[in-house]
Amino acid sequence: MPESSGSIGRTPETNVIDFRAAEQLLSARDPRGAVKLLDPVIAAHPENTAARLLRARAFFAAAQLRSAELEFGVVLEREPDNAFAHFALARTYERGGRPEQALRHFRLAAALDPRPQYVAAARFDS
């Protein structure tokens, strides 16, 4: 009988292939397809921060803001100095109508990495 975990027959190579395919799907604007490919990868390797970050981006692109928020949160628990994750979480909060929380993470992103887009979003002047 097949198991419902989705991990039967999975190899490290399968996980890498699915991760790369999920990147391509996200680039091709199919975030839901990317999430479907990433779910078994993360089930097999829940510690894989890169896969979680990609899934968070896919959730954001699919307008699944609560799922994106949770996934970006997991990434930031593991990598509190990840400027991109702070920026993306801020965009998630902004899109969800939570400007105060967004500004905090925009400013953290800019403090960690002074890229022009991070600094502009941080609105240090205001």
Head-to-tail CA distance between termini = 61 Å
Largest sheet: none
Sequence of secondary-structure elements: HHHHHHH
Number of helices: 7
List the helices and strands and how they pair.
Elements: H1 12-27, H2 31-44, H3 49-61, H4 65-78, H5 83-95, H6 99-112, H7 116-122
Helix pairs in contact: 1-2, 1-3, 2-3, 3-4, 4-5, 5-6, 6-7
Question: What does this 3D model show about the protein?
Answer:
The chain has seven helices and no strands. It has 126 residues and is mostly helical. The chain has two domains: 64 residues; 47 residues, no CATH class. Helix 4 runs antiparallel to helix 5 and helix 6 runs antiparallel to helix 7. It is elongated and about 55 Å long. The N terminus is likely disordered.
List keywords for this structure.
TPR repeat, Tetratricopeptide repeat protein, 2 domains, elongated, TPR_2, 72% helix
In short:
The chain has 126 residues and is mainly alpha-helical. Helix content is 72%, strand content 0%.
